[in-house]
Design a protein that fits this description.
The chain is an alpha+beta fold. It has helices at residues 6-16, 53-63, 95-103, 112-115, 132-138, 150-156, 163-182, 214-217, 233-244, 295-303, 344-355; strands at 24-27, 39-47, 75-78, 81-88, 116-125, 192-197, 202-208, 286-291, 308-313, 337-342. The strands form 2 sheets. Strands 1-10-9-8-6-7 form a 6-stranded mixed beta sheet. Helix 10 (295-303) links the parallel strand 8 and strand 9. The radius of gyration is 28 Å and the shape is elongated. The two termini are 48 Å apart.
Length: 368
Amino acid sequence: MKMKSRSHGILIARRQTGGMFEVKIRAILDEIYTRKMELEKVCVCKITDRKATSKIVKKISQRHPLLSLGHLKRIKNKNGELKIILSTQNDVDGPEDLLKTIQNCPGNDLDLNNIIGPVETAEVPKWQPLTRAQFNEACQYWPTAFHEDKQITRALNDELFDLKEREIIEDYLLKSIKLADRCKTNMSCSTGTVIVDPETNHVVATAHDMSSDLQQLRPGDQSNLTGHPLHHAVMVNIDMVARSQGGGAYEIKTESSEKESPFFQPQAVCSNKETKIGPYLCTGYDLYCAQEPCIMCGMALVHSRINRVFYVLPTNDGAFQSKYKIHVTPGLNHNFKVFHVTSNKLTIAVQETFYGNLPSTTETQEPC
């Protein structure tokens, strides 16, 4: 049987949901994909002799190459009127000096005074557009090169996941919220996390926040890992993954059933640290969080080589959206994808877990 394409599956899913997915997944991208177009002033002039256009471009390019504006086309054709970029405004002292410099260029057999008009100032895009929206905005000022990244376009349009994948993502996020409810000592710090292997769709480990004194709230919890400021849910969960590979640094008792315990890992835990099970820490794994992780947890995810992060509730000082974007920071030895997920089910679960009977609010929480 011939398999249907992924794009076809997405189209069918949209039709089934009235043209919109109920589970919305917003990719948290680098700001270079969402920023407004910046403009730079350049010196331009009208070409009065169209037959000499190629010679004019050659001579001017030799004298004033657009090194910082290489994404721009030298010529702009608007309604049959040709204009050429002579140079950036910072490269010359004035219009007269510019034309004189070009005219006196060695080997120049053109009399520019007869084939170009007076020098004017124009605003052009300062950098090459990376998205269709940026390209459309840039073209309002000057023709520019554009090479569309289809994957980025799909991410911006929320077209990366089909209906089935969205249901799976929502289910794991609901599980993380349920875990958060177990450690809720106050509204400012309670979150749950689930780490999943997307290749097999199996849960690798689960955890909730352990930075509060949970023994006073949950005396039945089997752990001596209470009240430590570094034991955020993400940190504990990464350690659980490390334990499943023969490592781990925290002392924590686990149960074999993820339904009964907030701390779950496969029963086949390696006891010999010289024998490694699985990839390097979280390589290839996905993390599902009730709340956006903090900076500490964000860097831990960088070092553990996480593949993707999905979260529900933004936080005041979050690592991926609210304040920083660690996952796309240049210079780090690992980058990964992050998604903010919303749906009716998730909204209800967040309301019940984090706000109880309080009125609905859009204020963010402190990160855990």
